[in-house]
Amino acid sequence: MKFFADTADTAEIADLASTGLLDGVTTNPSLIAKSGRDFMEVTKEICGLTDGPVSAEVVALDHETMMKEAEVLRKIADNVCIKVPLTIDGLKTCKALTKDGTMVNVTLCFSANQALLAAKAGATFVSPFIGRHDDNGVNGLELIEDIRIIYDNYAFETQILAASVRHATHVLECAKIGADVATMPPKVIKALANHVLTDKGIEGFMKDWAATGQSIL
Ligand code: E4P
């Protein structure tokens, strides 16, 4: 399972990249706005921090303008992945871009039928949003399960990129279902390493080691 950081905060991305555990980055217009930085400049910087795909989202709603925006975005770096919304125009753009070998992430997916369309459009990634479903009283994980079944039925190569991941349990369940990727805020990636018994174990080992009076270095 690949881990993407869902952020445009370059300091956090650099920190995660240094662990060797980061496989890519996703951004969206809200995350770019939160960074307070120029879209092109921050996206270029992010592309230099990871070898993995970096999703940069178009903001046009019609196919022609999406294609023009994608043309600008894909010149930023070889690892840019064009993010398009799950609309008919977005799917049309996905089909056109993937024909040339450009990576495309079809985002704002809230149903398995939408994911089926994204796969038929040749998407590299589809982004089903778990947390936003949960916020509305719908179990977002069931969406991931349905998409996994459908994609396996037809051997679609589109990767399921679980998005709107809010906590460690989402990650665990996505891994059990077989999502290909989870994109999550840096704090969620780091939280995966936490366990109270690990902390307690370290404390005990340190105390016993100190009592030996020895050192390794
Ligand atoms: C990822 O590509 C999405 O933009 C992101 O995961 C949305 O997450 P949110 O629902 O927490 O805003």
TrEMBL record:
Alphabetized InterPro entries for the sequence: Aldolase_TIM, TAL/FSA, Transaldolase_3B, Transaldolase_3B/F6P_aldolase, Transaldolase_AS, TSA/FSA_arc/bac
A GO term for molecular function: aldehyde-lyase activity
Annotated compartments: Cytoplasm
Pathway noted in the entry: Carbohydrate degradation; pentose phosphate pathway; D-glyceraldehyde 3-phosphate and beta-D-fructose 6-phosphate from D-ribose 5-phosphate and D-xylulose 5-phosphate (non-oxidative stage): step 2/3
Active-site residues annotated for this sequence: K83 (schiff-base intermediate with substrate)
A Pfam cross-reference name: TAL_FSA
EC number of the protein: 2.2.1.2
Keywords: Cytoplasm, Pentose shunt, Schiff base, Transferase
Organism of derivation: Croceicoccus mobilis
Coiled coil start-end: none
Lineage, top ranks: Bacteria, Pseudomonadati, Pseudomonadota, Alphaproteobacteria, Sphingomonadales
Function: Transaldolase is important for the balance of metabolites in the pentose-phosphate pathway.
GO terms for cellular component: cytoplasm
Domain of life: Bacteria
CDD domains in the cross-refs: Transaldolase_FSA (cd00956)
Reaction(s) this enzyme catalyzes, per UniProt: D-sedoheptulose 7-phosphate + D-glyceraldehyde 3-phosphate = D-erythrose 4-phosphate + beta-D-fructose 6-phosphate
Family: Belongs to the transaldolase family. Type 3B subfamily.
Protein name: Probable transaldolase
Keyword Hydrolase: no
